[in-house]
Amino acid sequence: MRFLVRPSVRPRSRAPVRMFMAFAALALAGWVLQRVREGGLVPSEVEACYLGVPGGAPLGAAALWEEVHVGAFVHGFTLFMLGSLLVVSPVRDRVRRALLVTAAAAALCDLFAPFAVIALGGWGGIRVATFVAAALSSATLLVVVAVRFGSEVVGASPG
Amino acid sequence: MRAPADPRIVRHRLPALTFAVFLLVIAASSAVVFALELGATVGHVAAHYRGGGFARAKTLDGLLLVAVPHLAAMPIVLFAAAHVVGWARAVSRRGYRALLGVSFGGAALSIACPFLIRYVAPTAAWLHLAAFLGLEAALLAWSALLGAVFVPWRSRVRTRTPAPSRLPHAGRVAVAVARRWRTGFRPRQERPQPGSGEHPST
Description:
The complex is a heterodimer of chains A (159) and B (202).
Chain A lengths: L1 H4 L4 H28 L5 H9 L9 H27 L5 H28 L3 H25 L11
Chain B lengths: L6 H5 L1 H26 L3 H9 L9 H28 L5 H27 L4 H27 L18 H14 L20
Helix pairs in contact in B: 2-6, 3-6, 4-5, 4-6, 5-6
C-alpha cells in the first residue's frame, strides 16, 4: 500500500489504482442496483422487509446484526482505501475532510437504520434516506479520487 | 517535552480513524452475532454445529458458506490494520508480533474450529470460544492503537523510533568490521540501471 501512495512511484501506481477504482465503481453500482431491486427506494417495501407482514414478527436481531457485520467490512475497507488515496491526491483539506466524513457518517447511518425502522415500527423513509446519502456520498468520493489521484504530484512526504 | 506531530501521520488521520470506527463495528457486530446464533457457552457452541434438541447438524455446504467469505475478508482487515499501526510504529516490535500472532492465529482458528467441532470433536468448542475471544481482543487492540496514534489530541505524542545503538563508536566500528569479515569483505556490487542492457527488465 505504501508503494501506491509514495510520490516517487506515483506514475507507476496509477494503473493499479485505476483498476481498483474500476472495481470499486462496479461494486458500488452493484450494491445500488441490488438495493433498488429489493425495494430500497420505497419506504413501504423497506418496512415490509424489516417489520414483516402486519401482525407478524419483525426480522430477527441476528439477521440485522449480520447485515451490519457484512456492511461494516465492505464500507470500512472501501472508505479506508479511498480515504488513503484521497490523502495523496491534490484536493483541498476541507473538501477531503468533508467527503470522507460525509461518506463514513452516511454509511454508518445506513448500517444502523434498520434498527430505527424496527424500533419506530415504521418510518421506512429513514432507510431510504440513509441509502441515498450513502450511495451519493460514496459515489462522489470515488469520482473525486478517480479524477484527482495522480493528476499532479503533491507535496506529500514519502509514506 | 512533546515531539511535533509527524506530518505523515497527521495526513492519514481521517482515513485511519474511519477505519478504526468500522473495525469497532465489525468487532461488536461479530460478538453479537456469535452470542445470538452460537450462544455463549461451550455446550451451545457444540450443539450449534453438531445439532441437538431441535437444531440440525450443520452441513459441509453450510460451514463453507460462512468460512469462505471470512477466509478472504479477515486477512484483508487484519493486514490493513497491522499495516497502518506498523507504519506508525505505535507499538514495540515484540508487542506488534504478539498482536499479529493473536490476530491471525485467532482468525485461522475461528475459521477452522467449526469444521473441527462438526467432524472431529465437540470439545473443539473450547478452542473456538478461546480463538473468538482472542480475535475480538485483537480487533479492539488494533482499533485502540489506531486511536492512540491518530486521534488529534494524542497525535503529538512521540511515536516509536528505532533505539540508537548503546555501543560506543569503537564498538560500532568493531561490529561493522565483524559483519564485513563474515561476508568476506566483498565489494558492493553496483546495481545495473534500467536501460543499461544489464537490467533484468531490458
